[in-house]
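Feature request, filed as a ticket because there's no other form

It would be nice if the structure record came with a short human-readable summary line next to the tokens. Right now we just get the raw output. Example of a typical job, pasted below so the devs can see what we mean:
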Amino acid sequence: MRLTFEEIEEQIKKVFIRYGMSEEKAAVCARVHTESTYDGIYSHGTGRVARFVEYIQKGWVDVNAEPEIEKTAGGVCVVNGHMGPGILNAMFAADRAMELADRHGIAMVGIRNTTHWMRGGTYGLYAAERGYISIMWTNTESVMPPWGAKECRLGNNPLVMAVPGVEGQAPLMLDMAISQYAYGKLAMTRLAGKKLPLPGGFDKDGNITDDPGAIEESRRIMPIGYWKGSSLSFMLDVLGAVLADGIGAADLDRVGKGSCGGASQVMIVIDPSKTTSGEHMRETISRAVAHLKSAALSEGSSGIFAPGEDYIRFRKEHDEKGIFVEGVIWEQILNL
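Raw output as currently delivered:
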């Protein structure tokens, strides 16, 4: 089905208010969920509303909590999220990181004791649209086996990188889980009755498969780059916990408060005007994108895309046709 931005946003806001959020907090969270859906990240937009409500009901998210700055040292800051809504904690931290980057050129804000920030790219775009470069990530509970294992001991630890757009264009933005596909993507693909475009994990018998349901059943998602992705995920977990003075997968598993309950997140934000001119940055980005797209297309290719062009394409489609929402997901939201 297709809906307007306002229809989705208003309904999600009503749901969040119904489950105890203030109107102001509900509005911020509803907008982020709707923007994620508008950008084609359905799994972390409308697809996450029911789970967020479930976590509120279980007491795993405290809708009344406020983020608190616990440590500062130059351009470094640690924030305690007090298990409040992850979106609100992440927005608070992003604002603080930009303030510190203005002062010091570069800032690092760690967020500990927080909850799922939903779409990580939200905060990369938020900074890039204001002229900053960012590198951000979150750790998660164990949802992926290390390479060579069949039991989950790694998070999929989403990683975000974003740079400002040039000449009025949208920012370039990488937002990826360290698994080939995030579990949210598996669920949305399964609900749509589709296969994955490429294999994304193993079935219960250890066979590589493109069946999202089989991977959800086995809990054996595949790391990007095989052993390399496995190692990258491990390092993001450790660095996230250390830099945020928080915890990693080993302890998140013990806490057992759902997806990212108690997670550690890191936001590194840079003011590029401290290192280069705006003209040089614009020329560099434009030349890099042009160079990327100058390559001859492979057989059956639908084109070459710079990071972030997927969300731009979704925006165009949704502006023309309305925003796509799975019927079963919308019915779920209406019944909350």
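Something like this underneath would help us a lot:
Residues 255 and 262 are 8 Å apart (CA to CA).
Residues 1-58+309-336 form a domain with the Hypothetical Oxidoreductase Yiak; Chain: A, domain 1 fold (CATH 1.10.1530.10).
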